[in-house]
Design goal:
By secondary structure, the chain is of the alpha/beta class. It is built from 14 helices and 10 strands. The protein has 2 domains: about 20-65 and about 165-325, Rossmann fold; about 70-160, Rossmann fold. A 6-stranded mixed β-sheet has the order 1-2-10-7-8-9, with helices on both faces. It has a 4-stranded parallel β-sheet with strand order 5-4-3-6, with helices on both faces. α8 crosses α9 (about 195-210), α9 (about 195-210) packs parallel to α11 (about 255-260) and α12 packs across α13. About 55% of the residues are buried.
Length: about 325
């Protein structure tokens, strides 16, 4: 196990928020490596929600999650000399697998600091893609300290799961594809954990349609983004308690700034609603999504006053589920 260390050395790429041009460049950069995921619809779920829904299915992305977009953009942004030293991150699963695969596409080492409580199927994926695992305690502080130690020992480039501008720009390519395919939407809904996906989505969507509303769906048991926007300052003292293991990261500073800039609003969602939405998608759409994806649909179903009668884009962020621990069993 990695011993606690001071705050990690942040990558210079995390210092400045990306813009729409960065998202467009990311789309070109990752095109040879990332999948262009399908947009699916469901008449029966439309009827339940009282709206017209377009689901951007990142559960069909490589590694089974949108995270490959950001990781791939970060890895292929590196100069050859920096890339040769490898990359390091901390992750509960999806970002770690994404960075491991992105590193493999470039033939460079990858190190992933993982909490001991991480989902086994996600850990197996990280190892299968060739990364070296480093275990730590199940806290954000321990994860960041572990990444700092590996960075100091190896010289690897830190690719933070959500505060890295290269990652944020890459995540925004999912919304870019969605809007290019379906045209105008009234609303875009995406999950929010650390804020990389919602931040990148807001950049892309607002550039293409300045009138679109952006809503983040956040677990009620990990609602630091919701509380941060309410209080006017970043909240860091919340201990996450949610079935959405991919949404337990604390909102980053750069990500909070993007929420404010693009007037993103956040809806806290109870785990019971998320689990019901996940099961509904399994039953009606016949596809596998994880709780951290289902929360976006749960937010729509739980707030008909906001979404009824509107054209709504929903980003399904991933489909990595431990089949031995389905949340309704």
């Amino acid at each position: 196990m990695i011993a606690p260390m001071p705050e990690p050395i942040q990558s210079p790429a995390s210092a400045v928020a990306p813009g729409f041009a960065d998202v467009e460049r990311a789309a070109q950069r990752i095109a040879p490596h990332a999948a262009r995921t399908p947009v699916l619809r469901s008449r029966s779920i439309d009827a339940l929600a009282g709206t017209t829904l377009a689901f951007k299915c990142e559960n069909f992305q490589r590694v089974g999650a949108f995270k490959f977009r950001g990781a791939c953009n970060a890895v292929w942004s590196l100069s050859d000399d920096v890339a040769a030293r490898g990359v390091v991150t901390h992750s509960s699963g999806n970002h770690g697998a994404a960075l491991a695969l992105a590193a493999r596409t470039r033939g460079i080492p990858a190190h992933v600091v993982v909490p001991e409580s991480a989902v086994k199927s996600k850990l197996a994926a990280i190892e299968a893609y060739g990364a070296t695992l480093h275990f730590c305690a199940a806290t954000i502080a321990a994860r960041e300290a572990g990444a700092a130690q590996v960075q100091a020992e190896t010289g690897a480039e830190l690719v933070h799961p959500y505060t890295d501008a290269r990652v944020i720009a890459g995540q925004g390519t999912a919304a870019l594809e969605l809007l290019h395919e379906v045209g105008d939407l009234d609303v875009l809904v995406a999950p929010i954990g650390g804020g990389g996906l919602i931040g990148g989505s807001a950049i892309a969507a607002k550039a293409l349609n300045p009138d679109i509303e952006i809503w983040g769906a956040e677990p009620a048991g990990a609602d630091d983004a919701y509380q941060s926007l309410r209080r006017g300052a970043r909240v860091t003292d919340i201990v996450p308690n949610t079935v959405c293991d991919g949404l337990r990261g604390l909102l980053g500073e750069i990500n909070l700034a993007l929420l404010r800039r693009y007037e993103v609003r956040v809806l806290p969602v109870e785990d019971a609603q998320t689990i019901a939405a996940m099961r509904l998608v399994f039953e009606r759409m016949k596809i596998v999504i994880e709780p951290s994806s289902a929360i976006a649909l749960a937010a729509v179903l739980g707030h008909p006053g906001i979404f009824r009668g509107r054209r709504v884009g929903v980003i399904f962020s991933g489909g990595n589920v431990d089949l031995d621990r389905l949340p309704w069993q």
